[in-house]
Amino acid sequence: MNLRGLRRHWDAFGRSDPFWAVLSEPGKKGNRWAAEEFFKTGADEIEGVLAYLRARGFPLRRGRALDFGCGVGRLSQALALHFDEVVGVDIAPSMLELARGYNRHGERCRYVLNESDRLPMLSGQSFDLVYTNIVLQHIAPRYVKRYLAEFVRVLAPGGLLVFQLPSRVIDAGATRGLKGALKQVLPQTLLEAYRRLKRSFEFPRMEGHGLRPDEVRSVLEAAGARLLDIVPDRSPGPAWESFRYCATRITGAPAGQLS
Q1: Which of 126, 171, 189, 226 has the fewest CB atoms found within 10 Å of its own CB?
Q2: Is residue 136 part of a domain?
Q3: Edge-to-edge, what's the strand order for the sheet holding 127-132?
Q4: What is the CATH number of the domain that holds 33?
């Protein structure tokens, strides 16, 4: 899906079932999230991330934080409890409208629309923390690689980039039942054609994508970053192999961009 399609689908989610689209917990579909409960998950998540960074001994300044794919502000509202200034970026106008309505931190937390595969509205070397979770997995890899380079570009010297990204589908139940049996005998090209046809009738829909860890490392290093840590992550659920990455800019290295 290109970025225009991504905007269209996620803008529709923002108008129909925004909390569930951001955090697709079983039993919460159909606007069943309570706002207080939903935003508490963000506060708990950020507390966990900060604890992880402390445990690893990664120093973190509390100046500016970027929440990429902020949706309705679940994480940016939580980040504003710990940072002087927070910027949330999203592709869906409907999500940002809700985020501004839920903002409890005034001018210290602002929300910005971005429909590009770059982040042109953000200055280089200006954020102490760049954070994104359960976002990049919905974006085609060609765009993810460009965003990763942009994250490095906007990262301040000594700042930290923390993000989650799946690598591949495990699909442990693929061989079960008639559906699984068909997957074993039908040509892959036919299966892909069927999936594309089925997806074309789904609106709005979420796509799932991943990048292998070696690809992620290559992109970060080419952009001028050093990978500090990689740990398994369960955010996308049991069907995916996924990791949390932590990186920093190489001191003195220019932050490049992927062409």
Answers
A1: 189
A2: yes
A3: 109-113, 85-90, 64-68, 127-132, 155-169, 240-249, 225-232
A4: 3.40.50.150
187 is a domain residue: no
Instruction: Look at 236 and 11; give whichever has higher pLDDT.
Output: 11
Q: Is residue 196 part of a domain?
A: no
Q: For the chain, what is the domain count?
A: 1
pLDDT digits 0-9 by tens, 147-199: 999 999 999 999 999 999 999 888 655 444 555 555 556 575 664 554 555 55
| Residue that is written with structure tokens 């036919």 in the block | 190
Place of tokens 């955010």: 235
CA distances from 218 to 153, 154, 221 (A): 15, 18, 5
